[in-house]
Amino acid sequence: MRKTLALLIFMSSNVFAAGNGFHDVVSFNMGMISHSVTENESTLIQTDDSVQTEDTSAVAASSAVSAISFNLNWEFKTEQKKSYFVQAFVPMMTTGGAGVFLGGVGMNWYLNDMGSKYTYVQNGTELTIIPKFKYYWGASTGIGYVVYNTESAKKSDVFFDLGVHGGGVYGIGTNRGIKLEVGASRATGVATTGIKIGFFLGMTQYL
């Protein structure tokens, strides 16, 4: 019955007055990012002929960046089973100044009946449907900047990020929820490659 009602409302949404529809969602999350970094050997070739070495290439260094980070996520163009989003990650607590900055876009696909709060008003009567629990998976892409430490120096690189994630939201009241999300991605940089794993817990707010 609940699924049928949600589907009928979704199919009829264009008939109702302006202001009806699914709500956008903004979330504020804190968590841990773990980013493995491996330097590309092709970027470490020695080209200075005045420097005498036994080998013309340097050894590619590896490093691991772990930082407590903040994530801001805004879901828009929300529908019954999917939404688009933009997001940003910034490090809050780091070791030795290492951290990951990232901005990106993506999509969520919801696996339950409804992915967002729904409201419509007709003839002065307002009806609101709020999912108590929702869970989803998604994909994202973006551009990032990683600062990492090796045995010899602090270095940085710009990378292209492509990943997948999954999570759930437990609703609290009419406008908020508790969100849990985990994700993994491949980071392909100018001078490095790596795998990035994230674990985040936060609050959502319907707009």
List the helices and strands and how they pair.
Layout: H1 2-11, E1 21-22, E2 25-39, E3 62-76, E4 82-93, E5 99-110, E6 118-122, E7 125-129, E8 133-149, E9 154-172, E10 176-189, E11 192-206
Q: Which properties best describe this structure?
A:
single chain; mainly beta; three-stranded antiparallel beta sheet; 11 strands; elongated
Tell me about this structure.
- The strands form 2 sheets. Strands 2-3-4-5-8-9-10-11 form an 8-stranded antiparallel β-barrel. Strands 1-6-7 form a 3-stranded antiparallel β-sheet, with no helix packed on it.
- The protein has 207 residues and is mostly beta strands.
- Strand 6 and strand 7 form a beta hairpin.
- Helices cover 5% and strands 63% of the residues.
